[in-house]
Amino acid sequence: MAIVLPQGRFNNLTDEYLRRYIGAHARILAVVGLEINTFKPHTNTKTSVLFLQKWNDNEDYGPLCPYKEDYPIFFASSQKCGKDSTGEYVFLKDETDQVLRDLHGHPIVDHDLYSERLVIQKQWERILNSIQDPEIIAKYNKAYTRLLEILPQHPTIAEAFMDFVKDEGFSFLPEGQSHGNLE
Q1: pLDDT, tens only, 67-126
Q2: Is 117 helix (H, G, I), strand (E, B) or coil?
Q3: Which of 27, 29, 62, 156 has its CA 20 to 30 A from that of 49?
Q4: How far does the chain reach from its first CA to its final CA, in angstroms?
Q5: pTM score > 0.85 for this model?
Q6: Cα torsion for 15, 17, 18, 23, to the nearest 10°?
Q7: What DSSP letter does each residue of 59-73 carry, written as one string?
Q8: Which long-range contacts (C-beta less than 8 Å, at least 24 apart) are formed by 39-46?
């Protein structure tokens, strides 16, 4: 489960009861601080996403997650949310200042939450599986190749979290799956 909460819920002394309640009922998997512009123009509140897994000793009720007192928690902070201070989206651009678009023509937002390269690769795989016309495939291949050359390669929060999940051996990740092949 994931919940977006105002940053104050994590820090305010008066909210200690809430933190204790959450800790008694669920394992805190991760806390991801969102960039201040994430929800602009609607709010200026600094927020974080809290990822939880309900404590569970009975596999009949879902993935096992036995109660622990002490355990590692993944922490990350987004530096690029894809919006500017006015709440307008910030898109990736090419060398001619043109907005980059994915293989379906959607503008690509500049953020650090997940890998746009993986999204493009999944789009390409679906196109190859659904289109038979060699001319259309060639057109998409040209766009795909160009995007892979231009798209920035940088660590993302989702990839770092999936590495953490794998290292910790969490039970909610199907065996043999990694962040590169999650659907």
Answers
A1: 999 999 999 999 999 999 999 999 999 999 999 999 999 999 999 999 999 999 999 999
A2: helix
A3: 62
A4: 17
A5: no
A6: 130
A7: GGGSS-B---SS---
A8: 40/83, 40/85, 40/86, 40/87, 41/86, 41/87, 42/87, 45/6, 45/7, 46/6, 46/7
Residue with tokens 């997940």: 114
Cβ distance 28 to 50 under 8 Å?
A: yes
* CB within 8 Å of 80: residues ≥ 6 apart: 35, 90, 110, 111, 112
Q: Which residues contact 32 (CB under 8 A, 6 or more apart)?
A: 48, 49, 51, 74, 75, 76, 77, 78, 157, 161
* Residue 39, φ and ψ in degrees, nearest 5: -105, 15
CA-CA distances (angstroms) from residue 130 to 123, 125, 134?
11, 9, 12
Q: pLDDT, tens digit, for every residue of 121-149?
A: 999 999 999 999 999 999 999 999 999 99
**Which amino acid type is present at position 159?**
E
Distance CA 46, CA 54 (A): 26
Q: How many CA atoms lie within 13 A of 87 on its CB side?
A: 7
Q: Coil, strand or helix: which one is 116?
A: helix
- Classify 5 as helix, strand or coil: strand
